[in-house]
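Q: what sequence does this backbone want?
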C-alpha cells in the first residue's frame, strides 16, 4: 500500500489526533523534499522515539532570498513518497503554498540572537522564514518529538530556542550529519554540482577537519579560521561566506585566541560553481 498523503491541516490533524487517542507517540520530520539518505536517517531516528512518524514535504518560499534557487529547487514528490515509505514513515503531509500561506497571511516569527550571525548575515530574512514555517508545522502536526539534522546546525539552534521560548510541547532532537565516503555532507543541493565540482566539494570538510586539529593542539581560533579560508580559495571555491568557530549553544563568537575549554562548533558556508555548500562539526 502506498504511503498515505494529506494536503490540508485538517486532514493532518485528524490522523494525528486518532493516533494520539490510541496512545501512540507521534514523531515529525519536516523536509523540503528532494530526499536523500540524510533525510531518511531522520525518519529512522524518529521511528525509534515514536510509534508513528509524519514527514512533511514543503518547499517554503519565505526562506528563500530574491536571488536564490526557489524555482530551481529539485522537486519529485512521487520519489520522495517511495523513499519515506521505505524508511518507515506513516504519513506524508504535502501542503500547497496556499494551504500554508492563505490569502491575507501576515504573521512572521523572529528568533533574535542565535539567528543573527553566519547565515543570518549571509541570507537576510532566511531564518525568519524558517522560524515562521517551523512554528506553523509544529502547531499543525502537534508531534511529541520532531527531528532535525545537525547539518543545518544554526537552524537547529534557532528551532531549539523557538520551542523553548514559546513553550511548545515538543521534544526537539538533533540527528548527526549524514556524509558521503569522502566527508561531504549530504544535501539536496549537491545535485547542482558538476562531476569536477563534486570532487572539489569534499575539500570543505577537509579544511574544517584541519582547523579542528589546529585548535585541539592549542592553536589560535583566528589562525585556524584564516587557514581554512585560504585552503578553500586554493581548492577553487568562489565566494566564502564564513568559516568561523562559535559557541556550540548560542553561536556567540569565540577567539581570537585558543578555545579555552568552551564547547565549540566550526561552521562554514562557501560557494562552488552555482552551489552553496554548508557544513559544521563539533570542535
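A:
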Amino acid at each position: 500500500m502506498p504511503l498515505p498523503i494529506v494536503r490540508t491541516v485538517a486532514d493532518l490533524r485528524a490522523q494525528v489526533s486518532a493516533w494520539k487517542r490510541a496512545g501512540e507517540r507521534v514523531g515529525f520530520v519536516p523536509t523540503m523534499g528532494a530526499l536523500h539518505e540524510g533525510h531518511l536517517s531522520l525518519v529512522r531516528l524518529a521511528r525509534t522515539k515514536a510509534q508513528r512518524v509524519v514527514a512533511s514535504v514543503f518547499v517554503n518560499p519565505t526562506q528563500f532570498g530574491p536571488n536564490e534557487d526557489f524555482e530551481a529547487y529539485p522537486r519529485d514528490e512521487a520519489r520522495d513518497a517511495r523513499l519515506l515509505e521505505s524508511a518507515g514513515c506513516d504519513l506524508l503531509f504535502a501542503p500547497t503554498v496556499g494551504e500554508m500561506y492563505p490569502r491575507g497571511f501576515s504573521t512572521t516569527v523572529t528568533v533574535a540572537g542565535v539567528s543573527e550571525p553566519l547565515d543570518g548575515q549571509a541570507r537576510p530574512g532566511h531564518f525568519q522564514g524558517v522560524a515562521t514555517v517551523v512554528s506553523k508545522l509544529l502547531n499543525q502536526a502537534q508531534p511529541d518529538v520532531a527531528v532535525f539534522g545537525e547539518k543545518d546546525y544554526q537552524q537547529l539552534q534557532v528551532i531549539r530556542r523557538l520551542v523553548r521560548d514559546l513553550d511548545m510541547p515538543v521534544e526537539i532532537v538533533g540527528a548527526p550529519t549524514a556524509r558521503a565516503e569522502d566527508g561531504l555532507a549530504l544535501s539536496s543541493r549537491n545535485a547542482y554540482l558538476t562531476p569536477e565540482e563534486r570532487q572539489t566539494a569534499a575539500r570543505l570538510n577537509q579544511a574544517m577537519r584541519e582547523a579542528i586539529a589546529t585548535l585541539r593542539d592549542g592553536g589560535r581560533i583566528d589562525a585556524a579560521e584564516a587557514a581554512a579560508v585560504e585552503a578553500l580559495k586554493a581548492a577553487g571555491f568562489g565566494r566564502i561566506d564564513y568559516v568561523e568557530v562559535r559557541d556550540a549553544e548560542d553561536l556567540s563568537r569565540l577567539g581570537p585566541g585558543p578555545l579555552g575549554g568552551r564547547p565549540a562548533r566550526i561552521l562554514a558556508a562557501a560557494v562552488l560553481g552555482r552551489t552553496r555548500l554548508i557544513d559544521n562539526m563539533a570542535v
